[in-house]
Every structure is written in C-alpha cells, then in structure tokens.
Design a protein that fits this description.
mainly alpha; 294 residues
C-alpha cells in the first residue's frame, strides 16, 4: 500500500478565508461571552508574563540567550489563548479582514475591540493581584521582584515613537503567529506555529499592550511595597522609577503600544492579506470573464 507523505496544512488563501469567517463570528458574538473570554485571555497572557520573569531573572546566561529563553516560555500565553479558547485584543486586529469584506460593520468591529481590550485589562489586573499575594519572591528570591520592577521601569521610560514602532513590530509577529496557527489542523501544528514568532517578538524587546497590562502594573505594586522598595533602591540606585505609576503607564507606554499594535495587525498583516487573497482573486476573475466575453 502506498503511503502519502505531506503536510496537511491550509494554503495562504485558505488561511485568509478562515480568518474572514472567524472574524465574522467574533464580530457578532454576545457581549458577555466576549468579556469572559477576554478576561481569560488577560489571565493567560499574564501567566506567560510571570513565567517569562521567572525564567529570566537568574539564568546565569548571556543577555541574548536569556532573552531567547524569555521569549520561548512566553509563547505559553498565545498557546493557551488559541488552544483553550480566549479573546485577545491584539489577535483580534485581524477582524479588519471581515470588516473590509463587509461581513461585519464598523460598529461591530469597534465593539469587539473595546470589550476585548477592557476584558484583557481586567484579566491582567486580576492576575497581578494573585501573583502579588502568592509572593514568588519570598524565601530570599527578591531578585525576582527586582527583575520585574526593572522590566516595568524600562517600559515606561521609553519615548512615544519608540514604543509605537515597537508596538507595530510586536503585533506583526503576534498576528503572524495567529495566522500560522490557522493553517494547522492538529495541536502540534498550532503550537509549533506560535513558538517562533512569539519568541522573536519577546526576545527583540517589542511592545505588546496586553502583556504590558501585566508587566507594568506588577512592577507598580512591587514598587509600592516598602520592604521591597528599600532593598531595590539600595541595589539599583540609578534606575528612574518616576514614571512607574498608573498614570505614567498610560501616558508613557499603554497608549503608544496600543496604537502601534493596531497599526501592526491591521495595516501590515490583515489588510494586506485581505487585498492579496480576497480582492485580487475577485478582480482577476472579473477580468477573465470579460476576456472570455470578448
């Protein structure tokens, strides 16, 4: 008996059609379902963020390998979102395909983005509270907390343009991870599709607004712990924590990273693939029919 070898994957055109169909369903989903699934996604990305801090705070490796390790373990977040099922704002920028195809209205698009964004924030903050009271830095592991504060401080001390551009690059890779997962038909297909783009975005230091909803608030609550702050200040006297506050987070990171993520997902991935695989085939078909008629 002949054995057929090959990869049972969707083609790029089929991926676009699937994204179009999935976006239509998401755009018409009930509010309560969107909110619950968005809260779950915020928790999932927060778990991956905490895992990344844990994996990188004391590796003893050089900086490049440490960043690579942090990106690899952070892949857990999107794997949970895609396999377990949840609604992630940055991934949902792909709904632009369904909007451009007129499967959903602008109101439905913005409604989805708004509900999911708020839900992701709620989920992230819930996990910040849970991790804070779990105290993974106890037992002489304060360096875990110090590393988390350094990550948060680094994010709020960047200028708007830098965060915005890093946001574009981050969501190009996140959306490509979602895009590649659409092509797979098995659990292994989807997991492998996610790992490399997510590892690349985290290791490169790009800015993901939902991940930052855990990283920065977690750094803020750690900074507001007097015992930890005293030890941190003695060890890192030159780190500027002025912007490490709720208002500083919004002003110096969240707005720019959110806008960059939208541009990266909508303009660089969703809209381009919509044009290539939905608009162009339709146009070519119309040209072909006209030639046949002549």
């Amino acid at each position: 008996m002949a054995i057929k070898l090959g990869l049972d994957l969707l083609s790029p055109c089929e991926i676009t059609q699937k994204a179009d169909s999935v976006g239509e369903s998401k755009g018409k989903e009930r509010t309560v379902v969107l909110l619950v699934l968005a809260i779950m996604a915020g928790i999932f990305i927060g778990l991956a963020s905490e895992f990344s801090i844990l994996a990188t705070y004391d590796t003893g490796l050089n900086a490049s390998l440490t960043k690579l390790l942090g990106g690899f373990v952070f892949s857990l977040g999107l794997i949970l979102v895609l396999i377990a099922g949840a609604e992630l704002f940055t991934g949902n920028t792909l709904l632009i395909i369904s909007f451009l195809s007129r499967k959903i209205s602008l109101r439905q698009l913005l409604r989805n983005w708004g509900i999911v964004y708020v839900g992701n924030l709620i989920g992230s903050l819930i996990l910040v509270g849970l991790i804070f009271y779990a105290q993974p830095w106890s037992g002489g592991k304060e360096q875990f907390a110090f590393h988390a504060i350094n990550i948060a401080a680094g994010k709020v001390n960047l200028d708007f343009t830098t965060v915005f551009v890093r946001g574009i690059l981050a969501n190009m890779l996140v959306v490509l991870a979602v895009w590649l997962s659409f092509s797979g038909r098995t659990l292994i297909d989807k997991v492998v599709a996610v790992i490399f783009p997510i590892t690349a975005f985290v290791a490169s230091g790009f800015e993901h607004c939902i991940a930052n909803m855990f990283f920065v608030p977690f750094g803020i609550v750690l900074k507001n712990s007097p015992a930890l702050l005293a030890k941190y200040s003695a060890m890192y006297p030159n780190v500027d924590l002025t912007n490490l506050s709720a208002m500083g987070f919004v002003q110096h990171n969240l707005i720019a990273s959110t806008l960059g993520n939208i541009v990266g997902g909508v303009c660089f991935i969703g809209a381009l693939y919509w044009y290539v695989h939905i608009v162009c085939p339709r146009t070519n078909g119309q040209i072909l029919k006209r030639k046949q008629a002549v």
